[in-house]
Amino acid sequence: MSRRSDWRLLRAELCVLALLLVLGIALVVVVARSRDAATTAFEQVRAARGAAQARVGEARAQLDHLAGHQRDYQMLRRRGVIGGEHRLEWVEYLDAEARRHRGLDYRIGARAAVAGVAARDGLQLYASRLDVRFAAGDETAWSAFNAGLRRLPGWPVESRCRIGRGDAGLEIDCSYDWLSIDRAESGVAE
Predict the structure, then answer these.
(1) Where exactly are the structural domains of the chain?
(2) pLDDT(187) > 50
(3) How far apart are the first and last CA of the chain?
(4) Mean pLDDT of the chain
(5) Using CB atoms within 10 A of its CB, is residue 75 exposed (0-12), middle (13-18) or buried (19+)?
(6) Which helix (H) or strand (E) covers residue 73, if one does?
(7) What single DSSP character describes residue 153?
(8) What percent of the chain has pLDDT over 70?
(9) SS3 91
(10) Pairwise CA distance, residues 138 & 131, whole Å
(11) Is 101 exposed, middle or buried (0-12, 13-18, 19+ CB in 10 A)?
């Protein structure tokens, strides 16, 4: 047989083989591109998941932080530090102490914003100055007076105190800043 006759006999099979080879190469290219696209999509999803986990972690940290501040806020609210001052309770206590300790003299100043503390988020730290002078019989009476102040609404902070021995016992001359937190625009003395 001649080459021509071999070609005629094999031509159909060779064409099918060539066609299958081209289709095979095309299929490999399509699969490779699909795999690359899937890998890219997988990496994007992985990055998005990592970013979402980071946001969840930040949100949890903020919630923990908020919970700590919430506890502090509730404690300040219970102590009467948040909102207006409680002048009536202070005066009632100090008047009762004046009946117990002869010569107790006190003065409560007007509420004013604390110098050097700027308002923040619409809130301001205020102080009312309390000046107290009296003769305590002994250290126990002085401690009881201070403990009574700390049970009252607000947050009394001793700013200056002179204690000396006198004929009637301890001579007390102290100043306190009675702290409260309120809206910045409501800082007018009550």
Answers:
(1) 1-79, 87-186
(2) no
(3) 123
(4) 87
(5) exposed
(6) helix 3-79
(7) S
(8) 95
(9) helix
(10) 20
(11) buried
